[in-house]
UniProtKB/TrEMBL annotation:
Glycosyl hydrolase family 38 C-terminal domain span: 527-706
Region (Disordered): 422-441
PANTHER family referenced in this protein's UniProt entry, alphabetically: ALPHA-MANNOSIDASE 2C1
Domain Glycoside hydrolase family 38 N-terminal: 67-199
Species assigned in the record: Aeoliella mucimassa
Signal sequence residues: 1-22
Domain of life: Bacteria
Identification of the protein by name: Mannosylglycerate hydrolase
Family matches, as Pfam families: Glyco_hydro_38C, Glyco_hydro_38N
InterPro entries: Gal_mutarotase_sf_dom, Glyco_hydro/deAcase_b/a-brl, Glyco_hydro_38_C, Glyco_hydro_38_N, Glyco_hydro_38_N_sf, Glyco_hydro_57/38_cen_sf, Glyco_hydro_b
Amino acid sequence: MKRYYALLLVACACFAPCLSSAEEPTQAYFVDGYHGGVYGHYPPGYTQFLVDRLEAHPEWKINLEIEPSTWDVAQHSEPAAYERLKELLRDQSSAGRIEMVNPTFAQSYFFQSSGESVVRQFQYGIRHLRQHFPDVELTTYSSEEPCFTSCLPTVLSQLGYEYAVLKNPNTCWGGYTSAHGGELVHWVGPNGTKLLTVPRYECESLHSRDCWQTIASTNSPEYIARCLEQGIANPVGMCLQDAGWRGGPWLGYSAGKHYTPSRYVTWREYFREVATATPKDWRFSQEDVKPGLMWGAQVLQRIAQQSREAEHRLLVAEKLAAMAYIETGHPRMTGALDDAWHNVLLSQHHDCWIVPYNGRPGNTWADQVQRWTSMANSISDLIAANALEALVRQGRSRQQGVRIFNPTATAIDAVVAVPLSDEGPRDSDWQSRDASGGTYPTQVVHNQATGERELLVRAHLPSLGYTTVSLSNRGQSTSVVTAATEGDQVVLESDLYRIVLNPTAGGTIASLVAKSLDNHEFVDSNGEWRFNELRGHFYNLGGFRSSADQPAEVRIVEQGPLRATVEVVGTIAEHPFVQRISLVQGSPMIECQVRIDWQSQPRIGEFEERDGWGNHRRAAYDDRYKLLVQFPSTLSSPKLVKNAPFDVCESQLDDSFYNSWEQIKHNVILDWVDLEDQQAGYGLAMFSDHTTSYAYGPQDPLGLTLQYAGKGLWARDYRVDGPTRVRYALVPHSGDWQSAGIPHLAASWQEPPVGAFARSGRPETRSLVDVGESGWQVCSMVEHHGDLYVRLFNATGTDQPQSLRMSFTAETTELVDLSGNVQQVLEPSLQEGQSVVDLSIPKYGIRTLRFRRLKRD
């Protein structure tokens, strides 16, 4: 009998959890809140709505992703509600009812801009937010849009963040992240930084009916059941509603039949008080970010180009202003630079990129980007002009010279265009001499964009500094860059390359030989594609069309001695185009650009899409059918590598193609994509003047997307309204992308040297910040309130300590985080008249140095 009762007790004990589970269902959690702002969507009176709903629902907690400038408006238009919100925000504990989860200035996607812009989005946004809420604690990063990039652990940890979230369940129109892991993971950034993160769970599938959400957006019983089946003890769903929606708590308003019990939490509370799982490391790749934007649509292309140009123009202006401060004490225009950054950051707002046509006529997102970037460029140009004036007026010599400034950390041999006045030389019968003793010819050219004459001058430039070259009219050196007609072909030739163009095949490149690489031929002439060919699927014409379908005229525009340029004038599907190809003496870059003058509305893509809202399969997805410029090469089974903000990603994709929303792949070119033939030891890098998509697969050559024209998201017709203009470049090389210095070439291409005439005496060279052979980049250098900030990024170097040399000294040199907190006080040594500090930066890591109270000679 005792044995019977003992067995009965054991059976009851074993069955108890099942009974408990039936009587007390597992507690689920839900993160509710709002997303938007004064630029996106935040209607008048909405602050009042928020505080009223919070008071009406004491169990409700919200997470806010609201543009910081919104609170400027709320403070003046809703002062009482604004003060009530401030009162609610005073409780920043886990029990608090409001958490600010995305403080960025303009809610950028991040993956489409530089790493420096990622930093500035947070810095400017946090600064503005704390003007309204000084005691706000920024603990968790979360976004309702796919505003993610691989370097976020690096940036967030230096801003004091403890947690991140990789879900965006209710707004996946523009993409999503990979499904991976369970309750918690350690998101491992490219430099090894770890951040405790809630991922998009492995069981969190995309919605089978809709094309904008995952199953986590409503805490449905199906979703919670899947979580429990996966072993997630504390499942959490999420929806940051659009600011403007008037329902209040999401689970009672729009989520329909949701799982119960579900409790509202802030992310801070969930991480600190709820989640219990032991996290596993997830080395998150940039290919785990899957953006599905309208790549190739002309409106998005222009936005990307305008934003990119303004971003780098501003970074150069900042560096020139910092140089002027170091050399002359000339102060920067602090307020103007801040205004310029505000405009640049707004051009990176996710809504600019996904709904460019939204807004009233004349005030769409695309219209606003044009205004924002124009304003930023005007400010940048003014700051750069003032800085140059301070930097070139130092000389007292009567000798005519040119001072050339290098805004990058890479010492380069460069040919620089210097604007000519009417009194300047009328021809190229001048020569230049730099500080190293090099003597080079000059060349007078015509700038297509400005209509002005320019003088091309060659010089060796130091790391982040300047060189002064003297000019004299003592005759010319032998030209090593030429363009000439040879039979029925046109040949471009420099000291590094020989390029043969075939006019009968649309002016495509028949041969590209790299002289310094054992005369290696890079053009594959045996396949169906031609090198530098324009090719796309014009579905209204019944199929593919190519620039090689008919002959083209190849004109020689410039014939050296420093730069040679040809123009290919042809047609594709009856639309005229002009391609320009330039070689520059000493430069590994093959510079290209294309202009297509549309004669009517082209229809380019896989097929004609007739409906649209809920389509999973879209004509705008598969890049094989878009208009591409293609580069079939002799590289055999190459590895593909691409850069991302503060990262470089070795692709694990079989190809870059997909045609349905649930299959989105990361096929984004930020600055460059590189193919490397590991067996032969050669590679080919492609550079783009804007963020867009690239095309590549085992059966398809490397290509750059130039045009899509047809239906897209929300059934919008993406049409052309003017010429398509794109600038791109190629670099054939040996070895891999690191040994070829591809990131450094990209930096110099995007932030080229700046030259100005100066009466500066004998040739000289001066590096203000010299990174040596470290592989580091100076992504920004800016003076702020009398202190100099220099931010370094380890693009190609090792983790070993390296020396940083400065041509100036300061009372204090500090290593600071992105919030300005001192991490270490450095003790520079004086070596050969320079200040030297030794630093160790992990691969793909960033470090910021602050120099207090500069000392000048």
